[in-house]
Design a protein that fits this description.
Radius of gyration of chain B: 27 Å
Subcellular location (chain B): Cell membrane
Distance between the termini of chain A: 41 Å
Main location (chain B): membrane
CATH superfamily of the largest domain in chain A: MetI-like
Structural class of chain A: mainly alpha
Family (chain B): Belongs to the binding-protein-dependent transport system permease family.
Helix content of chain B: over 70%
InterPro entries (chain B): ABC_transporter_permease, MetI-like, MetI-like_sf
Oligomer: heterodimer
Order of helices and strands of chain B: HHHHHHHHHHHHHHHH
Helix content of chain A: over 70%
CATH architecture of the largest domain in chain A: Orthogonal Bundle
Shape of chain A: globular
Largest sheet of chain A: none
Protein name (chain B): Sugar ABC transporter permease
Number of helices of chain A: 14
Number of domains of chain A: 2
Amino acid sequence: MSGFMAAGRRRDRRWMLHVVLVPVAVLFAAPLVWMVLTSLMPDADLNRLPPRLLPDHVTLDGYRKVLTENDYPRWFLNTLIVSAVAVLSHVVLCSLAGYGFARLRFAGSRAGFLAVMVTIMIPVQLLMIPTFLMFRMLGLIDTLGAAFVPWLASAFGIFLMRQFFLSVPPELEEAARIDGCGRLGVFFRIVLPMARPAVATLVVFTLLGSWNDLIWPLIAINSEDTFTLQMGLSTFSGTRHTEWSSLMAGNTLATAPLLIAFLLAQRHFIATMSFSGLKG
Amino acid sequence: MTVGTAPPRLARTARTAKRKGPARRRLMPHLVGWGFVAPATLVVVGLALFPAIWALWLSLHDSDLISSGEFVGLDNYREMVHDPALRDAAWHTVVYTVLYVPGSVLIGLPLAVALNQRIRGIGIYRTCVFVPYVTSAAAVGILSNFVLDPEFGIVNGGVKALGLSRAGFLQDPDQALYTLVAVSLWWSVGLPVVVYLAALQDVPRELQEAALVDGANPWQAFRNVTLPQLRPATTFVVIWQMITALQLFDLVYTTTKGQPLDSTSVIVYYLYEQAFKQFNAGYGAAVAYALFVVTLVVSALMLRRSAGGAAGARS
């Protein structure tokens, strides 16, 4: 009897929750939806008062312009290279190190892990001036290498993977080792496939960071055909501030890969947050 | 015990001695261990600890980014005290941080509680709230210049339709900084939401239900049962968002570039200009070090306070 009443009350409250959440969802998503709509509108519709919300007719002029009238495709390719190297290297190096720190016993492992963790406290702003000088000595400035070398591995990645391997019981690997697999064999055949949720999270965070990085490429790169997408977009927006459709087309194309990656990895996110102890 | 383990160990050593020698055999696990961790550790430590020390050295010189300059002792640090532009930038950073950090908690927590309910379409709501977080600063910058344009922007269009006077937003020196806070919260509140969601899933549902059965109303149950369990999450959110706020740069660069009238010049933007536009690398390094120390001290104080608070609650 009381169970019935409780269930009824709860259903009422659920209905109210939709009333709250629909405007919230619209508030967060609307600017991005409008970004896509704007990219499909002719500029004439956008530069008038008040601006149009919906296109009269859909046009791909914005996309055509952004892809042909400047170095946009080149910037896109540059960013693709930087992010691909960053993600690949991050996954391999950080999982190897995370596994080593979690599972293997060797002299200096504690000191090594401590040194890595100390670096988490050091902000990028402190490092950018000496890193610039160092990269100039190495001849990396104004190359794509300057953009991806800082992304080859990270303390956060090592920490994340170590926490994951600590949360997995070691029995499975031990069985494989008895079956005659070497350390590396066990790692690549058993451990890494098991680590999928953690790897997915690492991939998304690395992709997010390297794809959207702005301050470091601004410092390390100065010729236009080595620009990353984010640098290109922010200079482009300064010079062509009324060509909204091509600006938004550029924006949409630059955001789409991250959006897709995020949607694919989304379900792993909250689980990873829990085991990594990131929530505190 | 010793007697029990001695023979196999002896036997193993004897066997491997023929092939590799006992010393090498003993070294093997250490070599394998370092083989696993060395590449990533070298990258991380080499690109952080080493430059951090270099930055300290730079901050004691009047380097101009080309030559390393002369040793000037603490002059760069002394100069900071008498630099009115830096004082303004620091003040803007403080205002931004003081609004952004509580905003993250006050918006993030209720949103996470709402998004933690099991209702239809909850996945879509969650995605909508997090999606701005994956957008780049460049994209958010272009988008806010478009939406918040004082004359052509859609927001002022709506404001005018309501019969109110138009706002200047990013182009008004009195509003630009606050507009940046609002845009930042829209952009990045997804992170606190995800952290709180993860923490909420670890609060046992039975606990809340028990409180409800005992006659507490939902608000009391939340206030006295759920909220204390979220303390560690709040500590994390506050420290993380504070560090993010103190390091604000990207959004300023893609929207106002410190304008109008330097009203949005923040510390990292100022330090970027000093080091890479004015070529005062030594001074820039000193400003960076000061920011680093302030961040460390404030984080440590917050951690200590939260640990003290937890101990107090327990006793």
